[in-house]
Amino acid sequence: MAPIQWLMELESQRNGYVALLEETGSLSAAAYRLAKAWCLVRPVSTRVPTRLEVEAAARRIAERTGWRGHVPNAAMLALDCEADGLLVL
Question: pTM here?
């Protein structure tokens, strides 16, 4: 599925963000996946999200899911992503 289609589907599904969290298993991995999709649909696309993009994605997921836990800052999210083998700028 193309990134734009995936993003549209994620937004249109009632529990899309909850499903993303469940599928990825962690807030950092879910945020990475969302941030990467955002990067791919830009007019000048990139394949690797920045720390700030991952943090923005984590906050979006938290907002959409009613996340009650602490949302880590950009540096902590990047460390979590890198520990999972996900490259973050």
Answer: 0.94
Single-letter amino acid code for the residue at 59 = R
- pLDDT digit string, tens, across residues 61-82: 999 999 998 999 999 999 999 9
How far apart, in whole angstroms, are the C-alpha atoms of residue 83 and residue 89? 14
Q: What would the pLDDT profile of 41-65 be if each residue is shown by its tens digit?
A: 999 989 999 999 999 999 999 999 9
pLDDT confidence of residue 1: 87
Count of domains observed in the chain? 1
| Closest C-alpha to 22, from 50, 51, 61, 57 | 61
| 30: containing domain | 3-83
- Asked, for residue 46, whether it belongs to a domain, the answer is yes
Report yes or no on 48 lying in a domain: yes
